[in-house]
């Protein structure tokens, strides 16, 4: 599993970028370097990461996401994984909601067979 990045924007895909690490079927993501985001009604949080499944394991990878604000658990999701592209599964998700000021964390977990890997992205909303 790659690191999780918050997306600044998504660009149209060029033919020669298919093997680019930030490619997904909807285009190419450009990560933000900022860790502070704007909050308020209707704001979105786009994030991206890739899963590299073990092709020797017959079970498909399973994804879980848990959301926290100021250390308090907000909830979880178990989205379906996308199809593999070039040996990896690109995951591009957007969380919508009222991001009020505070410190947020999103914990991603991928389980396949008896293996599990976890990553986390941290950001501040002002």
Characterization of the model:
The chain is mostly beta strands and 126 residues long. It is built from no helices and ten strands. The strands form two sheets. It has a five-stranded antiparallel beta sheet, with no helix packed on it. A five-stranded mixed beta sheet has the order 4-10-9-6-7, with no helix packed on it. It is globular. It starts with a strand and ends with a strand. The mean pLDDT is 82.
Level of helix content? Answer: under 10%
Order of strands across the widest beta sheet?
2-3-1-5-8
Low-confidence stretches: none
Shape: globular
Distance between the termini: 29 Å
Topology record:
Elements lengths: L4 E7 L11 E2 L2 E5 L4 E2 L6 E8 L10 E8 L2 E6 L11 E8 L5 E11 L2 E11 L1
Parallel strand pairs: 4-10
Antiparallel strand pairs: 1-3, 1-5, 2-3, 5-8, 6-7, 6-9, 9-10
List keywords for this structure.
126 residues; mainly beta; five-stranded mixed β-sheet
Structure summary:
The protein is an all-beta fold and 126 residues long.
């Amino acid at each position: 599993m790659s690191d999780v990045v918050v997306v600044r924007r998504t660009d149209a895909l060029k033919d020669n970028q298919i093997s680019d690490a930030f490619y997904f079927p909807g285009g190419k993501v450009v990560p933000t370097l900022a860790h502070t985001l704007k909050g308020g009604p209707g704001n979105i949080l786009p994030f991206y990461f890739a899963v590299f499944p073990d092709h020797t394991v017959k079970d498909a990878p399973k994804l879980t996401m848990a959301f926290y604000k100021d250390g308090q658990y907000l909830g979880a999701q178990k989205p379906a994984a996308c199809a593999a592209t070039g040996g990896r599964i690109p995951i591009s998700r957007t969380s919508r909601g009222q991001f009020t000021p505070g410190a947020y964390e999103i914990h991603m977990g991928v389980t396949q067979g008896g293996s599990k890997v976890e990553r986390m992205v941290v950001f501040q909303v002002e």
